Batch of 4 targets.
Target 1
Amino acid sequence: MYPTRKALWLLVVSGVGPLAVPFAGIPYMMGWLLPLAVVAVIISDRMLGTQLRFAVRRRVAKVLSVGAKNKVELVLKNLNAFALHLSFIDEAPQPGSVDEEQMSVHLSPGQQGKVVYWYTPKRRGRYTFGHIRLQTRSRLGFWFVQRSVADFAEVQVYPDIEAISQFELLAQTNSLSELGYLNTRVKGDGHEFERMRDYRSGDEPRKVDWKTTARLNRLIVREMGQDRNQNVLFMIDMGRLMQQTTDGLSHFDYALNTAIILGHIAQKKGDNIGAVLFSDKVKKYVPLRKGRGAVDALIMAAYDMEPEPVATNYSHAFKHVMANVNKRSLLLLMTHMGKGEEQRLIRTYASYLGRQHLPLCLFFKEPALERAVRNVPHSTKEAFEVAAAADLMMDRTESLSRLQHAKVLALDALPGQYSATAINNYLDIKARNLL
């Protein structure tokens, strides 16, 4: 608690009184009445005007999404017989950011108010909201009053589960192109019978069911759906290269978010999903299962996992798959393209597993490398830098070609396009019955 500028100015102005006594011809003691009265009022405001009563509580969901804006509400009530102007700061967990550091609200006597702000966590795990620190003025405005309210709230920061809701909303409005998803034809290319329906302009003649057409005396088309009960296993790298960040999120987070969204899509299509999370050894294994519970199991297994500063051991991960996954599956490996020996291991194991499964290697492109290649050099040094970047890009292209030559599906994508690339290829694989 400390005096306001209003109190200090009033003290300065009232202090002129004793100095004017010799010139005004008034008794000496009369000159001190005004300063003493001001001091008395300020002190009484300190003793009585700072006994403020208010209530504050925080409303925040128990589960938050990393890298997404999560809503936080502060509900405040003025329990005094006079108005209050409250400024406050909420102690949000770190690492994270809020859209507004300091907030304020004006409350009439007995009024309840609500302030909403948005908190963006930068890392998954279990965290706690701390104190709510408030500041207001005393009743007469001569003192700043500071209070700290302990309103601890434990939250769990999960991968970006909000992206699932966004995907479903856009899917309902046929606006998936806004997220980068292509319109992939999924009807009529599968092996499982889906339904009979009336012929529509543009349907292929070979899909007309002639027996039913003859019986009903109108053109009827046999529509085939996609095969169901197939397996999608996510192999997510947790090694040191996945610690790299883009737009505040680690590449491991991008891979994990991709697995959750794609897992949601796959279970909607009746497929089983599972995951292997690995670095120098297998850290978590989520067995293949069906339904919404499969996505929940993946989220629960990975929400507090972080990439580690160790070299990735691909041998352990692939051997784990060989030992635990017998039915043919889409193996989606999400990783960085490492050095020559790591590339050789991926190529060898993926090619071997390709006899039974369908491996798909999705590598992260390096944003800095992509920018460097596009730079226009203005000096000899910059020309060498662009040439070096071009050589690295050529090496990446050759590595992808070697994998594809070994009959392994291999792609790379920038972090911001990672989910769209994975989903588009999954839908294409389903449509072409490659699995």
Note: The chain has twelve helices and 20 strands.
Target 2
Amino acid sequence: MADKLFGTTGVRKIYGKEFDLEMALNLGKALGTLVGNGTVLLARDARTTGLMVADTLSAGIMSTGVNVVRAGIIPTPTLAYLTMSKGYDAGLMVTASHNPPEYTGIKFWSKSSMGFTSDEERKLEKIYDSKKFTLAPWNQLGEELVIETAVDEHIEAILEKCDADLIRSKNFTVIVDPGNGAGCVLAPYLIQKLSSKVVTINAQPDGHFPGRKSEPEEESLGDLMELVKQTGADLGIAHDGDSDRVVFVTKTGEVIRGDRTIALLAGEYLKTSKKGTVVTTVDSSLALDEIVEQREGNIIRTPVGDIQVAVKVKEENAVMGGEACGVFILPEFHLAPEPFLASCRILEMMARTGKSFGELIETIPIYPLMKTKLTCPNEKKSIVMKNLVESLPKGLEDVVKVITVDGVGITLKEGWILVRPSGTEPVIRITCEGPTKDLVGSTLEKAKSIVEKTIDKA
């Protein structure tokens, strides 16, 4: 049942087709019923549907007798941090993260600063499906308050965690691209406190995402890459729609893949924590394993999704966790994605070593990695994935191991392939990494052909 409502992280659907205000109202009522009493923190990203959905959720929550505190447009990490630091009973973020503008959605956060686990999502969904909501009488309804200090409090906490004076002493030039998303209200202001030379691009909140598509990746960051090169800036920083992801650009305009940056930061954390554990997802590069092994650390891989990583980080008392898409979980601070402190850690390393980000990242090996995706109706996904467990390894050569922790992962003699259904779109994603571009390209084509046939037969 959970697959119908919840995806990889929370609820994320196309507004008007798969998501409507009745759904938002009932999710609000379900959350209020689950929480029982107390206060929920509610915020949103810059999407056109955000205010309307947040108003509706708030009404649903208050109808159960639970209070709501509204924080306006803020990044998801700010909501998660404040839910923990202020001791709210839950946090609700109206966002569809990096998805296109027609999507809307809701992410649920617990007071531990972690996203709702699958168990918590199931409990919520059970209430949602049953429609057995708590109904408070007219004189015991929840109340709504507004706070306007969320961003300031988050920035202050970040500055306390990093060596701000060291970073300031270098007077770096930094270009920040929040992608017209929620990061507009925080990222440029944080960097401004660390450097007097801050340039912004796409820094006005706009739910149409006019500057670029919301997902920060090489194809969408052309303007930022060009601007970093032209201005001779020291670093480029790009965020997605709700700012739980961050991607970095070197001074030569190169976009660095998230798993290489995780490896760079993991190397730092493991210097001070011998035999520490680093958690990442099944689709991260083997380069990360290499760096962690060199530092005598352990690596644990989880299914895709920042909550899966956070759960394991907490369980294993890991030094850090992350996803290749640009998610960094730094448990020294909290258990939600924390792109802003990650940015500060990069600037700290640059300041301390006197090296550029490009020089630092050169120490992390690059393996060619290619991705593709194929359209697959949501109702076909489970049968397709079930059939691929057999058809994929059968159609490939040099198979060493088959892993089914999340989708179908295949370790080859040289490299790996991961095929997994998207939790948010009607597609199946294929990722392949290996020692050479040619080998990765041919392996990806073989895998794509097998997946296409399997979808056709389903």
Note: Residues 437-457 form the longest helix (21 residues).
Target 3
Amino acid sequence: MTQSSDSMTQSPKDFDKPQCNCGVVGVFNHPQAAVMTYYALHALQHRGQEAAGIVAANFSEEKNRTVFSDYKAPGLVLDVFADSDILTKHLRGNRSVGHNRYSTTGSMTSANIQPFLIKYRMGNLALAHNGNLTNTKTLREALQNDGAIFQSTTDSELFLHLIARSRKETQLEQIREALRITRGAYSLAVLTDEALYVARDPHGFRPLAVGRIRNDDGYYAYIAASETCAFDIINAEFVCDVKHNEILVIDRNTVETGEIRSYPIDDVTPVARQCVFEYVYFSRPDSRIFGHSVDKVRRKLGKALAEEHPVYPEVEGDRVRTIPVPDSANTAALGYADQSQKMGVPNKYEIGLIRSHYVGRTFIAPGQNNREMKVKVKFNPVEGVIKDRQVVLIDDSIVRGTTSRSLVRLIRGAGPKEVHMRISSPPVTHPCKYGMDFPSREELIANNYECDADKIGAAIEVDTLAYLSVEQLMKNVPQDEGVSYCNACFTGSYPVEIDLSAVKHFTED
């Protein structure tokens, strides 16, 4: 059961921020699997706001087989599943997968909404994908030349064709073969008649974790999710992160013994290249990703920013006011203010901007549909905090710079002495190839002004602007053995390029 729309359009960019990739969820052995998936998707709403979907699996005694059902539609999770009967009556079963979508490849049409559901020679298969493949064009053309018919324009559908065409004898090996052919970023939840498979690509760009919750019968239900905040909402306990280059199998044996079987994707595991922007902006601060607290990492980045680029009071005896751009910069701003004080710089953290949480994805600005009005609808300055003060505005990133300029103008309307801006990441200079939606290089303000902070600052109308350096960013994110980071959006150094050799795997006899 798929709710569709014949005329869906791409959602507008959300206030000049890089758009997130997607959120995936998988649940195994819970009597209300779809309901658990619904709550988990709600916790992951920040990872995709264009569409949501759930596939559930239920063993039918009447039909003596497992029956899969689905429901997906454009909109936020709470809106898509506003009718509780969808979850309790239509999506029945003790296993499910779910997906929040933001389109990084493929247009925003009903055919592209996940999870995808197919039936092939080995049975049912539902798939939810977070990430972006780098050899999509090559694989798609080769598959089409071999007779494949695509129903969507998203790279995620490639997994289905590769799995269905695999000559391997087991579904595990079919999935493994498909993952060895694809290149780029993927965190996957794949549900079959017998098992839930979860996997992260060999470089581990995107996060994925497994938790569990005890059922009334004493056995555990297992849940996989993009971030651990999805576990908190349903009182699940964290079990493990899915490692890079790893497939985990959760099935009846897991329920009975507690064993989650692990298999490598590629024979040789490369160094992980985890997305550093997950720490900077994408993940919720109450999550643990890649084994570490996002909140603690962001505070550390804020402290490093204060050490690199402090702002001193203009008048002796005065204090600088550190103000975050809510909500993503809140913790970095706390770190900045705290470290400034430790350095002997008079500084006070203040809530100087109030964010409205009731702004939809689209709205009508009466009389003037311009960026300034959109910023005013979302943010409002606290004049008592800002007026006649030196303000340090902390944000996590600047992309195009248009919204930053509008925000600065809004703050100046409250009468500050000075407005300084500090960014807890380096200048964004390159688009992402692994599941985030950045503008083209020509649209990035850092490139328009040759990464000159003074020129960029003048363009967005602040008194001074400074970014955290690449060196300090990489120094202050967690340093784990065998793990590195992808920082291509800041450096242009892409760890995985398009790989044409992948075609041969499924064209050989």
Note: Confidence is low (pLDDT under 50) at residues 2-14, 361-368, 500-509.
Target 4
Amino acid sequence: MTLATIPVPVPAAFGTANQPLPAVGLGLWKIDRPVVGDLVTEALRVGYRHLDSACDYGNEAEVGVGLERALTARVCRRDELWVTSKLWNTCHEPQHVRPALERTLRDLRLDHLDLYLVHFPIALAYVPFTTRYPPGWVFDPDAARPAMRPARVPLADTWGAMEGLVEAGLVRRIGVCNYGVALLRELLATARIAPAVLQVELHPLLAQAKLLRFCREAGIAVTAFSPLGAPSYVPLGMATAADSLLGHPAVVAIAAELGRTPAQVLLRWGVQRGTAVIPKTSRPERLVENLAVGDFALEQGQMTALDALDRGQRFNDPGVFGERAFNTFMPIYE
């Protein structure tokens, strides 16, 4: 069984090419700058062709070094890669969208992206790159009480500038992160270029079946971030070890039945639902393990058992961490 890919539409500006989205990618959030360049090069060497980056991760310059090294060594060709990045919250005003992308392209050492996403449906006051980059969540970190500073920018205005990036040939596709059905409906009602991909938190504790069905019927591909659930959030105090799916009896039992690891079971669940998954790892030995989910399948009973774990448990919620970490109540899901 070969690893699945997920077709996504390419705007007419790019002709008839329709490069599929690799179903397993490497998420680059929280990978330390000193190691991420070598990790990217190694990931491409062992077979990854999908990288998920963002301005806010603070490591795109180092990712670019790893990418350039692999391309120069002919580990892979640029046209074999799917590279995603994201527009940060402080650059939602239309005049800031293209400069934000151009900074990302410069850091990644690329001339175009395969996908550029609006990172959150949250517009914050602009912070010049010369003041601070990446800009982060708070407007003034040195304030007595650092907080976010919201900006009044309609989502449609930001999207119009994103469409301009496609028309300029700088990105092949555009999409959004952390949108629900209502925001997607609003976007689709006015967009000249429909969103190609939605990236959201998805794992068996947060299955989001209705959102997934809506996207399937609307022709929007879905990428699942945090497909393993809690691990990335435990060090941040946003989850506890008890929340981990890697030790959940149902997951462990299925892994034992299949002779696979719990992580592989969780990733396979995501792929079989028709989503791409972007697990993060800083350990080279885990790269191969996470990629090796294309040569087995979960039986229907096993899928049903994992589906039954859904309890609407969201770990990445600005309505929770915004107040705790940044002194700002910023709900987007309720």
Note: The first strand starts at residue 5 and ends at 6.
